[in-house]
Amino acid sequence: MIAAASAWGGDSIPKAAWKRPLGLPLANPGVTRSAGDIDDGYWQGAPVGGMGAGTFSRSYRGDFARWHIKAATHKYEPVDANQFAIFEQSQGDPQGIAQVLMNGHPHGSALSSWQWDYPQGAGDYAALFPKAWFDYRWDKFPAHIVLEQFSPLLPNNYRDSSYPVAVYRVHASNPSAKPVTVSVLLSWTNMSGWFRTFTRDFAGAPSQGNHNEFVSEKISGSETMNGTMKGIVFDRNRAGDAPNEWDGQFAIAALDTPGVEVTYQATFQSSGDGKAVWAPFAKDGRLADEAKSWVSDKEKLAGAIAVRFTLQPGETKVIPMVIAWDFPLVQFGEGRKWNRRYTDFYGTSGRNAWKIARDGLAHAADWSDAIDRWQAPFVNDESKPLWYRGMLFNELYALTDGGTFWGREAGSDKNAASSFALLECFDYAYYATLDVGFYASLPLLKFWPEIDKQVLLEFADTVPKEWPEQGLWVWKSDLAGVPVTHKRKKAGAVPHDLGVPEGDPFVAVNEPGWQDTNDWKDLNSKFVLMVYRDFVLTGRTDTAFLRRTWPAMQSAIEYLRQFDHGGGVPENSGYPDQTYDDWVTSGVSAYCGGLWLAALRAAEETARTLGDAKSAAEYHAQFLKGQQTYISRLWNGEYFRYDTGSESKDDIQTDQLAGQWYANLTGLGDLVPHAMQVSAMKKIFAVNVMKFGGGEMGAANGMSADGTILTNAEAREVWVGTTEGYAGLLMSEGLQDQAWKTAWGLYHVIYETKGYWFRTPEAWDITGNFRAGMYMRPMAIWALEMMPPRQEDPHSAQSASAIRLPTP
């Protein structure tokens, strides 16, 4: 039976947190519709781990199953011995109850002596990333336990946000009339050496040479750290002092203080029956304090600690436990080695998990409070829907869990800036994909602006360079029936990405692949807009950043002018030459043309800021010419047509005002008359939102003018990130009802019907089935939060108002 919720005086779980009953299955979940794409199902939970530190997550049924420790590599496999368990016993009761906190059990006979199958629905899972809570409410437990989970992801903190540490704070309350003894067990498997393959599971993961060591360290002199830190370090034998990528440590630890007892079992076989752990724990909540250790031949080793204390009637306690790890080296496919960002503070030996765990225990309360202070202004803003306030933070999970890299090449100057990149997704493993980052990087800019600027500086450095090697152009080769090749990167072209994990990222950029991105018509404009955005939204003071990127901005614009066939707007080339990379675009297009107009305005304002009056005048003249062409060729009286030359030319594209979105975001003013913008936005809402899935699925990328779903594979999809950008534009124009309705459709699919929480995909179709999970573009949800009200700009508004509107 499930106990009624008890009053509890500990830290409250925010109302905005997304909640789901523990272990409750989902009816009719979404599945991938793209063969080979990752689809691990809906048993997902918020991840732990800092940016670039490697991550893992505990699902809402209680198992640790998702592993992103090896850079850009996704592994999904529950590890049986990685568990939390609870022992509780009321004073006077002849025996207590011991229960593994997992809604399920291992397959096979592993750990058969343990008490599995925590009842479904006996409590709730809640998440407001970077925090999650496991709220255990079962009538057999006399005390109420909430397990709070987080890593120290903190805004404008470029140190702690990189740490490979997970804090689990036990919030324990005794609502009964009797004293209750409580013990919380944390067991862990020695996984050192397991993160060496690109497979999506641990098949063949070696344990030879692994060993566990009990560690005890007296701590004093700190208000939060007085006592004895006890725990287990999981390591392996190594051939030398310099670690391989798979060499490293895990550690689990807690603090033994007056009234809080920590006991341990340093080593047991995780494939055995587990009696060495469970028999003493089930008896009185203690472990055997057995420090025996041995080196594995091939058997999988595990260890456990238990934190035991007594609660008086009405008493509450908050007790931290930590999991830390230290896998300092990243080695990409071509062999180059990199040290993760956190090694700047802990060293590169791969033997510092205990030190990291110590810091986790010392700062657990401070970090928790800091996260709460960061989130409070957003999640307590009752002028906005509750579902949105939770989604706003939960979609940030990809900052850490999406294969994120943050580090410096091994042996490089320690004063040099670290490279940083988000991974587009694990199915499309490109680092820092620019056309997607245009949407996804908004929260990175808002909360860690120096990182986002560094990414754009790296892109700026690539613009004048050429990589002459040839790569296969897959899309055109498939079309032609013969191999078609293209140059890896042309001088003047902004690269699609900074490389792939299997290659030599940050050195060999613009990985050849599906399309020839050298001639894409959105990348160069987006780069210009993102640079200007970073300048504006960080206070318009960093002119050094603007000056350093200015030559690349100018080169990017000049490169695009080669595709201008006389109208002042670069024309698309009859293939999918923009972020919609399977949707043919030809001639002047609403999407790329609008981005071009916005980029010209951004370049004009940049030139004016830097005192380059000549360039400012030239860009303004180009803008006026392009603006006239854009409107005369695309405006049909209601909206801007998709393009002028493809079979989709009359279709309604949700993203047709992407350039205006950025213009509103950065105060560039109207790119086209305001009446046109409002008309187009309302048309998109009426058709692409309300006539697709009954207005409950977001905005379809494209719809026919009569409201029928298109046949093109990408046009008939909802893209989460582009829908969010459109919703942000609606918000800035004061169309709040339409903005919330549009964004709620995304929430409805992700969190209510299809089970895409913490694996938000790039796209779904009318069935709700998805493509490309764990995608980075959905972080554009912050567009709704960051958009200022529409602003007039004298340089664009006057020009736009003077345009003579064509007759429909």
Describe the structure.
The chain has 808 residues and is of the alpha+beta class. The strands form 8 sheets. A 9-stranded antiparallel sheet has the order 1-8-9-10-11-18-15-14-13. A hairpin with a 5-residue loop joins strand 3 (55-58) and strand 4 (64-68).
Compose a concise summary of this entry.
This protein is α+β, with helices and mostly antiparallel strands. Residues 1-10 and 796-808 have low confidence and may be disordered.
**Could you give the distance between the termini?**
67 Å
Q: What class would the helix/strand composition place it in? A: alpha+beta
Instruction: Write down the overall mean pLDDT.
Output: 95
- What is the overall shape? globular
Q: What is the helical fraction, as a range of percent?
A: 25-40%
Radius of gyration: 28 Å
Low-confidence stretches: 1-10, 796-808
Strand order of the largest sheet: 1-8-9-10-11-18-15-14-13
Q: Would you count the extended β strands for me? A: 31
> Largest sheet, if any?
9 strands, antiparallel
Percent strand equals 15-25%
Count of DSSP H/I helices:
19
